Amino acid sequence: MPRRLREARERSGMSLRTLAKRLDISASALSQIETGKSRPSVRTLYAVVSELGVSLDDLFDNHGASETRPAATGAADVVVGRGGTATEWMTAATSIHPLLRAADRPTLELDTGVQWERLTAEHDPMIDFLRVTYDPGSASNAHGKLVRHAGREYGVVLEGTLDVTVGFETYSLAVGDSISFSSDEPHVLANNGQVPAIAIWFVVGRRQSDPRKPLFDDPALAEASNNGV
């Protein structure tokens, strides 16, 4: 991620000091993130994405030998009734490959002891489909602070236990337990157990929000909430 973050900033033509000021962090803190000496928080990560106008997927570290997908073969390649030449459709088919090998999963390492692995072979503009790993004592946000953002979340625990706080309620999820909730409710995920917790997580619609402008600061949303909307 450090290299990708620096490249994205340089493409934008923004200096390190300018970006740091917009992110409300020090230039030295941003420099350490860009050089891999420290990891960003979830809040900083999404602020970077919003400020630079890039996708979260642009910052994932891609594993595997190559990002070029092999061409699919067989009857499933035949596209009927959509127009376009056979060459055009074959080109499209080779650029959007449905399979992602476990060894090739793009990953993000966050400062809170959390690892995200993207489970889609390509960038999906609508959904974050992730395998998340929480080390013992780690949380989705520094110091266990609750956050809000646009979207809705769905998760199921594969290993260990995960405590999910939504509003004033905390739910303890064991292996096989699942949960869904609106992301505009204050929430935080934490592993208070003794072994790593692994879960599959879907987040729908998060990309429409800027983490530096949480929903509870939106006067229109507050008014709608007060009116029972």
Word description of this protein:
With 229 residues, the chain is α+β, with helices and mostly antiparallel strands. The protein has a single domain, classed as Jelly Rolls (Sandwich). It has six helices and nine strands. The protein has helices at 2-12, 16-23, 27-34, 42-52, 86-95, 219-226; strands at residues 107-109, 114-118, 127-134, 152-159, 162-166, 169-173, 178-182, 187-190, 197-204. The strands form two sheets. The chain has a six-stranded antiparallel β-sheet, with no helix packed on it. A three-stranded antiparallel β-sheet has the order 6-5-8, with no helix packed on it. Strand 5 (162-166) and strand 6 (169-173) form a beta hairpin. The protein starts with a helix and ends with a helix. Residues 64-94 and 211-229 have low confidence and may be disordered.
Structure, briefly:
The chain is of the alpha+beta class and 229 residues long. Helix content is 24%, strand content 22%. Strands 1-2-3-9-4-7 form a six-stranded antiparallel β-sheet, with no helix packed on it.
Please name the defining characteristics of this protein.
229 residues, alpha+beta, Jelly Rolls, three-stranded antiparallel sheet, 6 helices, 9 strands, globular, disordered C terminus
Question: What layout of secondary structure does this protein have?
Answer:
Blueprint: H1 2-12, H2 16-23, H3 27-34, H4 42-52, H5 86-95, E1 107-109, E2 114-118, E3 127-134, E4 152-159, E5 162-166, E6 169-173, E7 178-182, E8 187-190, E9 197-204, H6 219-226
According to CATH, the homologous superfamily is Jelly Rolls
Q: SSE string, helix = H, strand = E?
A: HHHHHEEEEEEEEEH
CATH class: Mainly Beta
**Unreliable sequence segments:** 64-94, 211-229
Largest sheet: 6 strands, antiparallel
**Widest sheet, order of strands:** 1-2-3-9-4-7
